[in-house]
User: Which sequence fits this backbone?
């Protein structure tokens, strides 16, 4: 008798793309606002971005129910941290917490592909990129989600710093100005929208800098 | 005195129907430095007299933020107070996680009271030696509760606990009829005057007295 298989899956993929770019004193985090299932659109107006701490923003694509649960867990843990340490969590600290939270469910993972963006304790932009079970790395830029295969090569072309094998060690943050980085993000989403059916409708762009947090939207193709 | 025969542990009744260990715990509250609370229709103010062990040491922390809408002032064994504050914070976070809305103050004080009652009915535990003035705001308005080590709780318009609190209570009893309609500033002023009463001649300075406020549109914070 062949092994019985489940006739349902606990997971679904709601599609969408996320991008984050770190600058010398800012960080841009962006995600589209389309939520889909299969070939259908559930809504054109869903935020995949969560403001976890004062200087730390997370964008996640994948199964939005798991994303929401993950956001709630991190939010609650951040409150506890604030009570215990009397200050906000730094972005690198939140990065480690996210990694641990994801690995905690190593054998029933959060179907969530995350990019974490923010300012480190020196005020420089930082981006952390994750897989579904918590493996993470600090990078200068990253993309996740259904459009990442289209977006990442383009970002590599525009932003890739020289090889990490080079000495002296080069910083991974881009020398681009904030306005140039935002413009790049808009270009990237417009392009991804053309070919990825799960990306479109609107892109939500969040900019974190010393002055605080700023949010803007740009329309994308709705087909 | 006959007290000594029946006061060894909390699970022994006296012939007069009293639990002396619980009453001794309430004594610990009376020995602690004063804490005062008053409420109006829209705000609740907590004031504390801070004792320092010596000129060299820092003042004890007696007011704790539990959530954006709830704060607590303690008198008695401050270590017990710290532990109970941690419990309250945890309850608020869990409730918010499940129901995505703030924990109503009345529910929190009942949970706290039940927790205190457990310690009055277990031979391997001792009652908490701390009285808590819980100040909070919820859909039903502004609230001030007093939780005692016995597991009882009462709602008050204004109250004072700790050493020399009778002087503050006398002042509050004279003025409390006006509190409901008081403005935020008048409420704070009355709290300060009540604190001064319990200081009995000592100078009222910011190092000796701490004030905290919670109100409509104003999250709980220490001034």
Assistant:
């Amino acid at each position: 008798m062949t092994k019985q298989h489940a006739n349902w899956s606990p997971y679904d993929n709601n599609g969408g793309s996320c991008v984050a770019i770190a600058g010398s004193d800012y960080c841009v985090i962006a995600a589209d606002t389309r939520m889909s299932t299969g070939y259908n659109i559930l809504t054109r107006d869903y935020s995949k971005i969560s403001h976890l701490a004062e200087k730390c923003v997370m964008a996640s694509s994948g199964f939005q129910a798991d994303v929401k649960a993950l956001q709630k867990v991190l939010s609650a843990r951040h409150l506890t941290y604030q009570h215990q340490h009397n200050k906000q969590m730094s972005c690198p600290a939140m990065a480690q917490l996210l990694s641990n939270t994801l690995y905690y469910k190593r054998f029933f993972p959060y179907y969530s592909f995350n990019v974490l963006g923010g300012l480190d304790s020196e005020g420089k932009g930082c981006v952390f990129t994750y897989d579904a079970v918590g493996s993470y790395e600090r990078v200068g830029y990253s993309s996740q989600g259904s459009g990442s295969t289209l977006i990442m090569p383009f970002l590599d072309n525009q932003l890739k710093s020289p090889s990490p094998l080079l000495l002296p060690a080069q910083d991974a943050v881009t020398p681009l100005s904030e306005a140039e980085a935002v413009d790049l993000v808009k270009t990237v989403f417009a392009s991804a929208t053309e070919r990825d059916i799960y990306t479109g409708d609107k892109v939500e762009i969040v900019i974190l800098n010393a002055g605080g947090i700023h949010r803007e939207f740009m329309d994308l193709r709705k087909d | 005195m006959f007290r000594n025969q029946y006061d060894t542990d909390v699970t022994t009744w006296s012939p007069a129907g009293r639990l002396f260990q619980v009453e001794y715990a309430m004594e610990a509250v009376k020995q602690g430095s004063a804490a005062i609370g008053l409420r109006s229709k829209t705000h609740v103010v907590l004031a504390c007299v801070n004792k320092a062990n010596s000129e060299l040491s820092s003042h004890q922390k007696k007011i704790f933020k539990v959530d954006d809408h709830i704060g607590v002032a303690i008198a008695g064994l401050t270590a017990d107070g710290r532990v109970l504050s941690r419990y309250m914070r945890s309850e608020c976070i869990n409730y918010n996680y499940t129901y995505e809305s703030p924990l109503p103050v009345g529910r929190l004080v009942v949970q706290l009271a039940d927790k205190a009652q457990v310690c009055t009915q277990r031979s391997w535990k001792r009652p908490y030696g701390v009285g808590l003035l819980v100040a909070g705001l919820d859909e039903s308005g502004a609230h001030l509760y007093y939780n005692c080590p016995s597991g009882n709780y009462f709602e008050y318009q204004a109250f004072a606990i700790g050493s020399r609190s009778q002087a503050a209570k006398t002042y509050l009893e004279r003025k409390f009829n006006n509190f409901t309609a008081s403005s935020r500033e008048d409420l704070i002023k009355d709290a300060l005057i009540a604190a001064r009463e319990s200081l009995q001649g000592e100078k009222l300075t910011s190092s000796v007295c701490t004030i905290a406020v919670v109100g409509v549109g104003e999250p709980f914070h220490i001034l």
